[in-house]
Write a structure and sequence with these properties.
By secondary structure, the chain is an alpha/beta fold. The chain is 32% helix and 15% strand. It contains 11 helices and 10 strands. The strands form 2 sheets. A 7-stranded parallel sheet has the order 1-10-9-8-7-6-4. Strands 2-3-5 form a 3-stranded mixed sheet. Helix 2 packs parallel to helix 11 and helix 7 runs parallel beside helix 8.
């Protein structure tokens, strides 16, 4: 089935999602392997029917039927790794809580007590759950090694940069076996810590070097309980973005507004831009006309050749399914209206 590796033609704006989708109530209530398989089909078909071009598995491949409340963009990756323990002492908890910039977490995802290795982490197996379920191209998402490192208490490397590099090597080895049309690295912590932007591209580029398809980076200001976790400006990260070995970016704009668009005229011309046109921190569903106008504004500022993708600002996991589904339909209808193909 080769069509799942074919992305939309370059002369049009593609629609995609960032990654996550609300877990169906029936899966949360009755977690099982058959129900998980059904949920994967549901989220893919929902996107297909909405008109989305590049699909995600809703990140349901991370769902653990034995521990349905513990999957996520952090613990799923680090808990299975060698060298990282999830049982912490009171002293270790106190040490983590004293770290700057981590107040949004009450505890670390783990403590690094030895050299990091892949352990039982198996991203290729997660990809195998979904890779044959749709004829449309699929993306596979992986949390940034920088963000993972920031959520850990390090008792081995003694250096954030060294820890991020070790995590990156584990992820690089695993994504090298994944033949998704797009592999997307997700980063939602650097936006609030721009002082690390001078080097944070290094571990991310390590992961991207293993990607067999198109390489993407999603960058946002966080989303937990409908709130932004980080504060900052895109301007502080432009050098970081230009240092990435990436094909396209997937960036948050709808919530923040579009005043910063002009900054991206200084982005390397070979990096395509994905523009957030759907606010995932608001239950109100955007009209197709509003989404079309947001795409038009981005094109007017940066040119049609730069705008490759439109998408929600971040994942849908915090929204009710009914709202997420309507936003998906609005996204595709708004893109079609922008291109003169909608009613």
């Amino acid at each position: 089935m080769t069509s799942r590796l074919v992305l939309p033609e370059r002369n049009r704006v593609g629609t995609t999602v960032v990654g996550s989708y609300p877990i169906p109530a029936w899966l949360a209530a009755l977690p099982s392997a058959p129900n998980l398989a059904d949920a994967l089909l549901v989220v893919l078909k929902t996107q297909e029917m909405a008109g989305i071009d590049l699909l995600s598995d809703g990140e349901f491949s991370r769902f653990d039927v034995n521990h349905p409340d513990t999957n996520g963009m952090i613990d799923y990756f680090v808990a299975p790794m060698d060298g990282i323990a999830t049982g912490l002492t009171r002293a270790e908890l106190a040490a983590f809580r004293s770290l700057q910039g981590m107040q949004f977490r009450s505890a670390p995802a783990g403590v690094v007590r030895a050299a990091v290795g892949e352990g039982s982490l198996n991203l290729p197996a997660a990809w195998d759950l979904v890779r044959g379920l749709s004829e449309r191209p699929l993306k596979f998402t992986v949390t940034s090694p920088y963000m993972l490192a920031r959520t850990l208490l390090d008792r081995h490397y003694g250096d954030l940069r060294a820890l991020a590099a070790a995590l990156a090597e584990v992820l690089r080895t695993q994504v090298a076996e994944i033949d998704a049309a797009v592999v997307q690295v997700d980063e939602a912590n650097l936006t609030g810590n721009p002082e690390d932007a001078a080097w944070a591209h290094e571990p991310i580029n390590t992961v991207l070097s293993g990607v067999r398809g198109e390489r993407a980076l999603h960058l946002c200001f966080g989303n937990y309980g409908g709130q932004s976790i980080q504060r900052g400006e895109w301007r502080a990260l432009l050098g970081f973005l230009n240092a990435l070995d990436v094909d396209h970016l997937v960036l948050e704009f709808a919530r923040r507004g579009y005043d910063e668009l002009e900054l991206f005229t200084d982005l390397r011309p070979e990096i395509a831009l994905g523009v957030g046109v759907v606010d995932i921190k608001d239950n109100a569903v955007e009209s197709p006309d509003l989404i079309a106008s947001r795409i038009e504004q981005a094109v007017q500022v940066l040119g049609a050749e730069r705008i490759r993708w439109v998408h929600p600002d971040c994942g849908f996991w915090m929204l009710p399914r009914s709202v997420a589904d309507r936003k998906l339909h609005a996204l595709a209808a708004g893109r079609d209206r922008f291109e003169g193909r909608g009613a």
